[in-house]
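Researcher: Next sequence.
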Amino acid sequence: MAAMKNKKATILTNAVEQQFLPFVRKPSRYIGGEVNQIKKNLDTCDLKVALCFPDVYEIGMSHTGMAIVYEVLSRLPNVAAERVFLPWLDAQEIMKQKNIPLYTLESKAKVADFDVLGFSLTNELCYTNVLNTLDLAGIPLRSKDRNQEHPFILGGAGMANCCEPITDFFDMFLLGQAEEAAVEIAKFLIECKKTNTPKKEILTKAAEKFPFIYVPSLYKGLPCRISDAVIDDLDNSIVPEKPIVPFTEAIHERISVEVMRGCPGRCNFCQASFCRRPLRLRSPQRIFEIAKKAYEATGFDTISLLSLSTADYPYLEEVIGLLAEYFEPRRVGISLPSLRVDVQLKLLPKLASIVRKSGLTIAVEAASERLRKIINKPITNENLFAAIEEAYKQGFEKVKLYFMAGLPGETAEDIKDIVKLSYKLAILRKKVCGKVANINVAISWFVPKAHTPFGWISQQSEEYFRNAKDIIISEKRKIGARFLNFKFHHIQRGLLESAIGRGDRNLSNVIEYAYKSGAKFDLWDEHFDFGLWQKAFEKFGLDLYRLAAREFGSDEILPWEHLGGPDKNYLLKQLQESKAYF
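Model: Next structure:
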């Protein structure tokens, strides 16, 4: 059996600079060398890890999880971690024409020469981009077709908890949080290289040694349970103290500081709130220290306080006070994700001086209190109106509301209420200053997710969603609310997310066929081709619509129940409790 080899990395700097960069439309995506990047001598490192976010540079550079793993591995003296993003279509064409394989940003090294290629998997629709990345790197798509010369292909982040549809393409998955787990895996692989351990034996030993590692090739349909890796002490966990400053504008140009991990709420549709337990808090002083160091290293003028539910962080008021004292004189603002209305009502006067007033975001999710009880989102209309009114008093002019349509137990009246509630919140501003507010309303379509109480429930049909969209538009016209701006998520993309997200290994063939037929950048509206995906499902005798609408029985073995997450019986109990309000 062949062992891991300490392969010398091929450096492609000359080819990149002379044959590639002069011909792409946005070379800043591909040059590396940014302020605060970490570059090591690949020849002197015992392990080379390429970290890939399977989308363009601007999106990947805004992903906090990848930045953390980059920092964690880079702190190991004998490990090199380098970044890889998926080139845009023009760049891909040039790479093919000039025979330039995918390379890392730090060293311009050939990705295929690394020991590990690790993917951040954040959405079901990034899977064709994973295959695109492997193709550009010259790595066979299927794990069974790779040999000892190829890197281990490892998947992590949220989709690792429901990864069965892509198991044929990966050697292993890391479930849960990677700060400590990535270090353990790196040290393990270094030891395996020193002892010339064969690759198949490495996978077997990894599965036996680490409860958070899932090796699909060893799973034969017998019951097993993989656990999520968990960070117990968030205060002392590693964070990027000197974040990389992108050369081109990223979608989020700011200092991102995680205030807590996990979520005290249990919205029945939210996979992250159930899979990222338990709740762990970062102290206000530590948050301030992280923000201060990152500011000094980057000069970014916005600090974003991140978590699944920042409003539920119990020391939010104290943190804002600490940050305001230091950063307000420096004209650095605070960006908060959507706040829970009862908390927001209390904090708005304190937030007014430092929080960016470009708009206020509230994830209402459902327009009726009955529907909010079904989804386990305890917001009352009384608190909602009081919070918005207070926001207007503090000078906020714009409000963004998030709603979801197609929820279990939803009626046509619930859909109409989305418009009626938004209208009432807009004209509420008249009470404060005599002017109506502009409200942007984002409508997403309910997608049942693995590891949630709603994971057993059928998704509504495409016809239902289109009818819901028509109801909302019609209701808006009826009341003549030009100040309400509705934006709807892509309906067919939501159907595909449901079909893939709760699927099994039979979908690997579908995903590969779709990719080879032209599917890539499926999260981009201009490139998403639903008809192509329909043909891919039909090619293997599968009905996309039927899979999206599938309802699972409580006694069924679910394609994801062995992949971390909470106890199945607990989720079923939550589901039964929500049905009392249907």
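Model: The CA atoms of residues 107 and 138 lie 18 Å apart. DSSP finds 21 helices and 15 strands in the chain.
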